[in-house]
Write a structure and sequence with these properties.
Tetracycline Repressor, domain 2; 0% strand
């Protein structure tokens, strides 16, 4: 028996609408977070998705659920690719240069990377997992580089962490430098932490 015209929408129609809304929200969030970081107002994400802010809460439970739903596309994919590629480099000096340069490049291009490094939303399980993996990669790299005397002997994984966090703070709350100046300072940083075997 057919539903009467103008009657309540079918359950399948409601499910289809919910899926469409969820995908629109995800797409809008990825664009917004990649361009401006994870702190973009949810009202702006909702407007870009063509839904209400309440719909974001209905579908994702709020900002934390939305971050968990898109953080892989926004941050993890590129960041983990940097970590994985660095591990393929046989020369430890080249590995240090690549890793630090690539991380700073991500920080410059992707504001959300800085929100992750600053642990802006510690209640996001996936964000904190990215931090854990990144921290382990830092420790692994610094240990290998110190063993090869490719870093200054007093330089530690905590120092590397502090350098990227300080950079995150400067980029998030300061004026964005010209790319040429930024890359020049990356070179200065590398020169400052290298050990004798890298010079």
């Amino acid at each position: 028996m057919r539903a009467l015209a103008g009657g309540a929408p079918s359950e399948s129609r409601l499910r289809a609408d919910a899926r469409r809304n969820s995908e629109q929200i995800r797409s809008a969030a990825i664009d917004a977070f990649q361009g401006r970081g994870l702190t973009v107002p949810l009202e702006e994400v909702a407007k870009a998705a063509g839904v209400s802010k309440a719909t974001i809460f209905n579908r994702f439970g709020g900002r934390i659920g939305l971050i968990d739903a898109v953080i892989e596309e926004v941050v993890a994919t590129e960041l983990f690719a940097v970590i994985d590629h660095s591990r393929t480099l046989g020369d430890i000096g080249e590995r240090i240069a690549y890793y630090l340069t690539a991380i700073r490049d991500l920080q410059y291009r992707q504001p959300a990377v800085n929100d992750v490094l600053l642990r802006t939303y510690p209640h996001s399980g996936r964000l904190m997992e990215i931090c854990r993996v990144g921290g382990e990669a830092n420790e692994e790299l610094v240990a290998a580089a110190r063993a090869a005397r490719a870093l200054r002997p007093e330089f530690t994984a905590a120092d590397l962490h502090a350098l990227v966090v300080d950079n995150a703070l400067a980029l998030k709350y300061g004026e964005l430098p010209a790319r040429e100046d930024y890359d020049r300072r990356t070179a200065y940083l590398l020169d400052g932490i290298r050990g004798r075997s890298s010079t």
